[in-house]
Amino acid sequence: MISAMAKKVRGVFVFLFLTLFSKAVGDKIFSRVIVPADPAAASFCLSWRLAVEANNVRAWRTVPAQCLRYIENYMIGGQYDLDINLIVEQILIYVKDIVLLEDGMDAWILDVDDTCISNLFYYKGKRYGCDPYDPVGFKSWAMKGACPVIPGVLNLFTTLVEIGFKVFLVTGRDQETLGQVTTENLHNQGFIGYERLIMRSAANKGQSAVVYKSGVRKQLIGEGYRIWGNVGDQWSDLQGECLGNRTFKVPNPMYFVP
Amino acid sequence: MISAMAKKVRGVFVFLFLTLFSKAVGDKIFSRVIVPADPAAASFCLSWRLAVEANNVRAWRTVPAQCLRYIENYMIGGQYDLDINLIVEQILIYVKDIVLLEDGMDAWILDVDDTCISNLFYYKGKRYGCDPYDPVGFKSWAMKGACPVIPGVLNLFTTLVEIGFKVFLVTGRDQETLGQVTTENLHNQGFIGYERLIMRSAANKGQSAVVYKSGVRKQLIGEGYRIWGNVGDQWSDLQGECLGNRTFKVPNPMYFVP
């Protein structure tokens, strides 16, 4: 075995090499494979991220401290976007074979935060989730209505609307305080033509995401809709009742909603 | 943008550097972060592997051809073992809080192939899943009874048995033809002390994995067992009825069982 010091020196050396070489060649793709200073940490963080996405790690409160740089690289270095785009491709392959009826009751559900629009800028200030959840801070961020689009999901949204799906945007955000700003934010990011934006009303206060979102889906089924797909960044979007014919998990290694 | 040729040259250069540097330092950990010759392929294959583990890509028949080296590196380079071990750690954290009753009916379910014992050597000859499923080839491999243990899962198994769980090994393998050899293979790899090895009988022939395994779990529940956990490398192990209180997906990027 090699000493921790030597490992660190080696890591720094490799990082420098890759950085310099990357700059010399000037290729954007390279930013996707930045090797963080400590390969052992990167291996651990990759395992952790995989376990989060496969729903093996649950109810986690913060990103492991040693994964700060890893998650930063993942989120802004290109891999996150690639992951989203591959999932959207898979969804579109599935969608291609769906035969819609003429009754206008073929439905699709999309979550909002970190599915349609991104809170990455906010979470940058929370050390990409290494800091614990801050409800007050998050609310003032959401009040700005400045969440940027997640481009791959907007593509999906637009395609679904064009095909004729009734798209329901379902969010745990509070209707009363965040209703207007969320509507505007979605609109200014290109989410135009959805059927309904469904938000947490006074009646849903205190419900877990699974209970609240199951209730929403149950009501849509009750109205006669056929839910073909359900996309969210949290497993709590994709668990419970009336899930829809298929669910898709988009990545989010920054926070966990129970 | 950079030309494809320049990209390739850069990739080879980086690979050479990392290989030489790794050898010069002689650190095993480094084998975990081998950067394959083509960073764009590695990024794609990482997205694909994540999507498989999160159950976003389904019913896939072969590993994408461009991911052969990536999957080889993943499976034998250390990351697969790290991924397994992190999941086992998470399982043990969950297990720690379970209070077993005195009636001996607290149960746990483990899948067999690529959960308890590994088919990696066989799949090496099938280009790590880039070749399509070969039922005859797989059967003759299984008949050898030479599947090596997956060490992290044996640790889990041993701990569960020691704590007092009744561990059920549930496999889609055919009882009649593979019963004896599978029992011996599990035994010679250290799986001693399980409650029952449940295999596919004539009555289960032709059933999908979800139907067959749901039936097995339903029967155990009928016998009065409480299924606390259910671990498998396939989503079909973890879907259907009577799933257990928690399910855990261990990685398998080499094949998909519907």
UniProtKB/TrEMBL annotation, chains A, B:
Protein name: Acid phosphatase 1
Family: Belongs to the APS1/VSP family.
Record keyword Glycoprotein present: yes
UniProt xrefs under Pfam families: Acid_phosphat_B
Glycoprotein found in the keyword field: yes
Keywords: Glycoprotein, Signal, Storage protein
Residues annotated as signal peptide: 1-26
Functional description taken from the UniProt entry: May function as somatic storage protein during early seedling development.
InterPro entries in the cross-refs: Acid_phosphat_B-like, Acid_phosphatase_pln, APS1/VSP, HAD-like_sf, HAD_sf
GO molecular function, one term: nutrient reservoir activity
